[in-house]
Design brief:
The complex is a heterodimer of chains A (116) and B (108). Chain A has 116 residues and is an all-beta fold. Chain A is built from no helices and eleven strands. The chains are: A mainly beta (116), B mainly beta (108).
Chain lengths: 116, 108
């Protein structure tokens, strides 16, 4: 149980275009979903937290107009990187949690974004 | 400031050579300490949750323990397939704060 999927697993796009990444909880209802970014050989950095039906809460330094997050249902959250630039190239990972904050987060397999 | 520090950064073991990874933390109001395993190019895989000092959990060759200031991940008789980066995270408020991880390499 506790499976989280992400799509796509890899994406290459041109500078200036927008990219949407989907995160789905397959066998549980995710009260809260999280989006992380990970640079090579670095740990995960939280970008934003989203609760179903509410606006996302962004971490300091993360541009909410650039990284649009939608959590429309208890099983789906999307991250849209708008007007992507090469510096946005990174490994983006989502996680999902059922219930309250004492529960563990389950992570998706990640999406490798490369902006040319 | 809430903080998580893992040591060592990298650890090389021979197959069968037991060892421990350390996770030191400072957090106000610990709601849980989590261990994850991450393979290259993949998302973290959940291993354990510990909630209170003195708690221990085991899974195959792995055993996690918790005190008021740190957690240890003990690896008994590791195998090459245990090679990965092990991440420790603490729950502070609604967010997880991750350490930088320990990269374990087990050679046969």
């Amino acid at each position: 149980g506790a499976v989280v999927s992400q799509h796509p697993s890899r994406v290459i796009c041109k500078s200036g275009t927008s990219v949407k990444i989907e995160c789905r909880s397959l066998d549980f209802q995710a009260t809260t979903m999280f989006w992380y970014r990970q640079f090579p050989k670095q740990s995960l950095m939280l970008m934003a937290t989203s609760n179903e039906g509410s606006k996302a809460t962004y971490e300091q330094g993360v541009e909410k107009d650039k990284f649009l997050i939608n959590h429309a249902s208890l099983t789906l959250s999307t991250l849209t990187v708008t007007s992507a630039h090469p510096e946005d190239s990174s490994f983006y990972i989502c996680s999902a949690r059922e219930g309250n904050s004492y529960n563990e987060q389950f992570f998706g397999p990640g999406t490798r974004l490369t902006v040319l | 400031e809430d903080q998580v520090t893992q040591s060592p950064e990298a650890l090389r073991l021979q197959e069968g050579e037991s060892s421990s990874l350390n996770c030191s933390y400072t957090v106000s109001g610990l709601r849980g300490l989590f261990w994850y395993r991450q393979d290259p190019g993949k998302g973290p895989e959940f291993l354990f949750t510990l909630y209170s000092a003195g708690e221990e959990k085991e899974k195959e060759r792995l055993k996690a323990t918790l005190t008021k200031k740190e957690s240890f991940l003990h690896i008994t008789a590791p195998k090459p397939e245990d090679s990965a980066t092990y991440l420790c995270a603490v729950q502070a408020g609604t967010a997880l704060i991750f350490g930088k991880g320990t990269t374990l390499s087990v050679s046969s």
